[in-house]
Amino acid sequence: MGISRRSALKAMAAATATIVATTLSAHETQAAAVVPLPDAVGMLYDATRCVGCKACMVACNEANDVTPDTSASGGLWDMPVDLNEHAKNIIKLYRDSGTGAQSYVKRQCMHCLDPACVNACMLGAMQKGEKGIVSYNPDFCVGCRYCEMGCPFNVPKFEWSKAIPKVVKCELCRHRIAKGLEPACCEVCPVGAVIYGKRADLLADAHQRLAQNPGRYVPKVYGEHEVGGTQVLYLAHVEFEKLGLPAYGDEPVPSRVRAIQGGIYKGFVAPVALYGLLAAVMLRNREKSDSAKTEKGQP
Amino acid sequence: MRAPLVASSRVVETIDERLMRCGISRRAFLKFCSSLMIAAPFGLAITNMKTPEAVAQALGKVIRPPVIWLEFQDCTGCTETLLRTSHPGVDDLILNIISLEYHETLMAGSGAQAEERLAQAMHDYAGKYVCVVEGSIPTRDKGVYMKSAGRPGMEVLADVAGKAAAVIAIGSCASWGGIPSADPNPTGAVGVADLLPHKTIVNIPGCPPNPYTLLGVVLQFADSGTLPELDEERRPKFAFDRHIHDQCPRRAHFDAGQFVKQYGDHGHREGWCLYEMGCKGPETYAGCSTRHFNEIPDVWPIGIGAPCVGCTEKSIAFRVPMYQTVKIHEATPPDTYAPIYAPQGNISPVAAGVAGLIGGALIGAGFMASRKLGSADGAESESKPKKE
Amino acid sequence: MNVQSRPQPLGGAIFTRPVQALAVFAGIAGLLIIWRFIVGLGASTALNDGYPWGLWIAFDVVTGTALSCGGYAVALLVYILNRGKYHPLIRPALVTSAFGYTIAGLSVMIDIGRPWIAYKLPFFWDWNLNSVLLEVALCIMSYTVVLWLELSPAFLEAARTSTYSLFRRVGDIGLPVANKSLLWLVALGMLLPTMHQSALGSLMLLSGPRLHPLWNTSMLPLLFLLSCIAMGFGAVVMEGALSSKFLGRKSETDMLAGLGFAMLPVLGLYLGIRLIDLGVRGQFGALFAFDHYSVMSLIELALFVTAGVLLATDRRRRDAGNLFRAAMLLVLAGALYRFDVYLVAFQPGPNWSYFPSITEILVTSGLVAGEIAGYIVLIKLFPIMTGEPQAAAAGPGGETLWLASR
After folding, report:
1. Spatial distance between the Cα atoms of C242 and B366, rounded to a whole number of angstroms
2. Residue A201: other Cβ atoms inside 10 A
3. Could you give the residue ranges of the DSSP H alpha helices within C204-252?
4. Chain A: nearest CA to C7, how far in angstroms?
C-alpha cells in the first residue's frame, strides 16, 4: 500500500510547519542596518529654497537627451504631470487651498542604499554601481517592469509609446560625474536648492540646517533612514507625506524577499533535498506496488 | 563727426589718416568710438576692448576697406535700413570708415560716369574690395529680367563679385531670393550663394535686416581681415544663432499661456504673446528680439503687436501663410506646475462591459453545465450501488 | 476494474463547430498580438506606470499557471500519497497543464517590452540570484519543458501505431526511454511548481510597502502554494466533468469525488493560515472596514468557505453538479485571491487607475480559447483519456452530444 494516509498527513503537516516557521522567522528577523558605500554620492534638496523655476527640468532633458513631454500641452510646453518616459526629473507643487501652505518638491530617483529595483532585476540591468549610483543598462533589460512594481517611490518609468521600449529613470548624470561634473540639475539650480555631494557630507549639512533653523523645517531629513536610507535627501517645511514622500519604515524593501529566498534557497540545498525526497517516496511506492503485483501473479 | 566732403584719395588710407585729412578732431573720433562700443553688435572683436581709446587705437590703424555695393532685384530697403543708424551714422560710415566706391542709390554720379567709376574701382582695388550685394538675381531666360548698363545681373555679379575679397549678401533677397523668389518665381530669382557657391559669402538675411549686423561684419573685416563665425547657411552666428522665441520679451506671456486671440482684444492691448496669431518666432533665426530697429526700443514687429513673419528664413518667409502657427522645437516648461498626485490611467467602459460579459457568460455557462451534470448523474447514481 | 484501463485517443472529427469557433477566437488573439508588437504596449494595452502589470500577468501568468497546477496536484496525490485510482486523471491534467504553462510563457513573451533580450536568460553568469522573478522565469520555462516531456509517452504510443515507418521507429525507440525516465521527470514536475508557485507569492513581497495590509504578509508564498494546489484540483474536476459530459465519456464522479475530498485539507490549511495571519497582524479591523479592499477580501474568503461547505460531506461530493459548482467556486476564489494581490492590493498612489483594454481582454480570451481547442484536438488524436465511451451519441436526456458527432 505504501505510505499510510496517516503518515502522509503527518509528513504534510511537518512540511507545512517547517515552511511556516521559516517564513515567520524570516519575517521577524531584524533587518540589518544598511551601510552606505564610503564614497556614496547623492543630492540634498531643500524645498524651502526651491523657487519652482524648473531650470532643473530643462537641464535634465538637455543633459540626458530626453525629448520634452509636450503631450499634455498640445505641443506648446514641456509639461509632464509626473515622472515618465520623457521626464527623469520633475518639479511638483503642493498647495493646500485651505491653509494656503505650499511647497515645491523635486522628484527623481532616490538612489536607495538597498534598492528594490536592483533586487528585482533578473539579469542585472539595474545595478548599484560606482559611488552607489543606481544605473540602468538596457542591454540586459527584457522590459518585464518588475523594477516598477518594486520601487516604493514609483521612479522607474517605461517607454509605453515605443515599439522598442526601455526603462527610463534618473541616473544621477553618471556620464557627467565620470567627467568630473555635477548632475545637470544641481549645476543649473540658481538658488542652490538642490546640491550634489557625498552622502555623508550632505547628511551633516542637512542636520546642521535643522539645528540652526528649527522653525523653518519639519525636523527630519527624509531619506536618512526611510527604506533603509536613500542617497537623495530631502528637507521641507510641510510634512513629507503631503509632498508625495510616504512615511516608510526603516526596513529596506528587499529584506523580506532576501530572507525567504536566501533562507529557503541557500546553496540550493532545500530544492535538491526536496527532489531527493520526492524521488525516494516514488521509488518506494513503485517497489511496493511491483511486489504486490508479483504476489498476485500479475505482469 | 561731421566733416566736409573731401575727395577720396586713390590710394587706400587708414582711418586715422582720413580723419586727419578731413580735420576731424580726436575728441570727436573718441566720441564716435564710445558710441560704437555701446551700439555695436555683440561678438565684434572691437567691443571686447575696455576703453574708447583702445577702440580708437585699433580702429585708427584700420585701412578703410573699399566697398562696392551692387543692387539687383531689390527694393532698396536694405540701403534704407542702413540710413537709419546713428552709431555710427551712415555718413560717418561711408565717408570715414569705409571707402564706398560704388553705390547706385547713394553716389552722386549716374549713367556712364557711374559705370566708369565702377570699372575704375574694380581695377584699382582688385582682390581687396568688399562686394555688398542687395537684391536677388534673376536667372530665367538668361537673366534678362534685370540689367545694369545693358548687362544681365548674373554677368555683373560674376564679374564684380568674382574679383572681390569677400561678398556680403545683405537682405533676404540677396541671401536666398527673398520676395522675388516667392511662388511662382517667374524670373527665377536666386540669392548670391546660389550663383557663386564657392565664393566666401556672408549672408545677412532679413527684410530688412538689422543694420548693425552689417556694421559688425564690415568692421571686423576691416579690422582684421577676417569674417565672423558663420553657420551652415553662411549667416554670422553672433546674430543668427538663436530663435526669436528664445529671447522674445513676450516669452513670459507664452510660458503663462497668455495668448492674443484677435487683433485689438484685451490680450493684444496688454502685449501678450502672438503665437496663436501665427508668430513665426519659434522657427525663425534672427536677432530682432534683442536688437530692435530704428534705435528705438520695441520698434520691431512683435514689439508693435504684429507677429513675426520669419523674414529671414527661406522656408517660411513669403511661403508659409502669416496666420499659420508653427511647431515649438525645444519645448520648455510653462508657468504652471504638476500636482503631487495627478490622475492617470483611464478605464474604458467598453472594455469593462466586454469583461463583464465574458466573465458573466463563463460563470453562467459553468452553472448551467453543473445543473446538467447534476441531473444526468443523479439518475445514474441511483441505479448503481455506491462504491467505496 | 474497467475494461478500458489504458488511455486511448478519442477519435472523431477534429474540426467540429466548437473547435472552429475557438480557433477563430484564437486567430483574433494572434492578429492582436502581431499588432501589439507593431504599435507597442502603450497603444495596445491600458497598462501604465502606476500599474505596469495588468491582466496578462495577473491572469495569464499567475492565475493561468495556478489553474494549470492540475498535473502537479494530481501527481502529488497519485505518486506521493500513492492513490493509484486517480491515475487515469494524470494525462488529461497534464495536457491542461502543458497548454496552460505554454500559454503563460507566451503571455510573458508578449507582455515584456524587450523580448529579444530573453535569449540571455540561460546565461547563468548574468543571473541576479536575488531576483524572485528570475526564479519564476527559469522554473516556468523548465516546468513547461518537463510537462511536455511527461506527455511524451502519449505521443510516442500514438507514433508506434502510425502509418509512417519513421514515426513507428521513433515510437519504438523512444517509448522505453520515456517510460524509464518518467519517474525522475515526475519528481521534477513536483519540485518545480512547489518552487515557482510559492515564488509567485514572493514576487509581490517586493511591493510590500505598497501592498494593502490585508494582503501584505510574509505568508504570501505559502498561501499562493496552497491555493494553487486547491485550484489545480478544482481545474481537474471541472475539466474532467466537462470532458465526460461533452465528449461522450462515462462520468468519473467516483474519482472526482475523491479529489473533492483531497481539496478539504488544503482548503482548511489555506483558510487557517490566512485568518491566523490576519489576526496576528491585527488586520481584523481592516477586514470589516467595508471599503473596497475589505469587500474584496470578504468575497474571497466567502468563496473559499462556501466551496469548503459544498465539499463537506460525502453525499455532496458525489453529486456531480454540486461538485462541479464547488470546484468552480474554488477556482474563482483562488483566481480572485491572485487578482486581489496583484491588482487590488497594489497601491501605486491614489491617482492611478487601470482596467484592461479590449486588446488585453481579447488576447487573453483568445489564448484561453486556443488552449481549450488544443486540449480537445490532443485528446482526440492521442491516447490521453481513459474510461469507457458512452454507449450512444445521445445523452441520457436524449440531447445530442454534439461535440462527439460530425
Report:
1. 10
2. 13
3. 220-246
4. 18
Q: Specify the length of chain A in residues.
A: 299
Cis omega (within 30 of 0) on the bond before B180?
A: no
pLDDT at B212: 86
**Which residues in chain C are closer than 8 Å to B377, comparing Cβ atoms?**
251, 253, 319-321
How far, in Å, CA of C303 to CA of C299, rounded?
6
* Percent of chain B with pLDDT strictly greater than 70: 89
Per-residue confidence band for C5, with pLDDT thresholds at 50, 70 and 90: low
| CA R_g for chain C | 22
Beta-sheet pairing, B130-134 with B66-71? parallel
In this complex, how many residue pairs, one in chain A and one in chain C, have their CB atoms less than 8 Å apart?
Answer: 195
| Residue bearing cell 548624470 | A173
For residues A114 and C152, give the distance between their C-alpha atoms in angstroms, rounded to a whole number.
46
DSSP structure class, residue B195: H
* Euclidean distance between CA atoms B245 and B242, whole angstroms: 8
Helix, strand, coil proportions of chain A in percent (round to 5)? 40, 15, 45
Rounded to an integer, what distance in angstroms lies between the CA atom of residue A133 and that of residue A162?
26
Closest CA to C258 of C73, C69, C7: C73
H or E stretch covering B102: strand B99-103
Which tens digit of pLDDT belongs to each residue from A191-222?
999 999 999 999 999 999 999 999 999 999 99
Q: How many residues does chain C have?
A: 406
Residues of A with a Cβ under 8 Å from any B Cβ are 52, 54, 57-58, 68, 70, 73, 75-82, 90-94, 104-105, 242-244
Q: Band the pLDDT of A224: cuts 50, 70, 90.
A: very high
Hey, how many other C-beta atoms are within 10 angstroms of the C-beta on A273?
10
Grid cell for residue C393: 451519441
In sequence order, which residues have a C-beta less than 8 Å from that of residue C230 and are 6 or more positions away? C263, C266, C267, C270, C330, C334
Per the omega criterion (within 30 degrees of 0), is the bond before B88 cis?
Answer: yes
Beta bridge partners of B172: none
Q: Would you say C262 and C229 are in contact if contact means Cβ atoms under 8 Å apart?
A: no
Name the residue facing A271 among C40, C108, C191 (closest C-beta).
C191
Q: Return the residue matching grid coordinates 590710394.
A: B11
Nearest to C354 by CA among A85, B343, A155: B343
B256 inside 8 A of chain A by CB: no
Measured in angstroms, the CA of B364 and the nearest CA of chain C are apart by: 11
Q: Which of C48, C79, C137 sits opposite A282 (nearest CB)?
A: C79
**Cβ contacts of A5 on chain B, cutoff 8 Å:** none
> C261-275 b/e with 16+ CB inside 10 Å = b?
ebbbbbbebbeebbe
Q: Which residues contact B183 (CB under 8 A, 6 or more apart)?
A: B319
Helix orientation angle between C90-111 and C132-160, rounded to the nearest 10 degrees? 130
At residue B168, the 3 state secondary structure works out as strand
Alpha-carbon span C195 to A264, nearest angstrom: 10
Distance in angstroms (rounded) separating the CA atoms of residues B330 and B332: 6
Residue-wise pLDDT tens for chain B (388 aa)?
444 444 544 456 788 887 777 777 888 788 777 766 665 554 455 556 778 788 777 777 777 888 999 999 999 999 998 888 877 777 877 777 788 889 998 888 888 888 998 999 999 888 889 999 999 999 999 999 999 889 999 999 999 998 998 999 999 999 999 999 999 999 999 999 999 999 899 999 999 999 888 888 887 887 777 899 999 999 999 999 999 999 999 999 999 999 999 999 999 999 999 999 999 999 999 999 988 888 888 999 999 999 999 999 999 999 999 999 999 988 999 989 999 999 998 899 999 999 999 999 999 998 888 888 765 444 444 433 333 3
Return the closest-CA partner of residue C205 out of C131, C305, C260, C104. Answer: C131
φ, ψ of residue B20 to 5 degrees: the values are -65, -45
Q: How far apart are CA B167 and CA B171, in angstroms?
A: 13
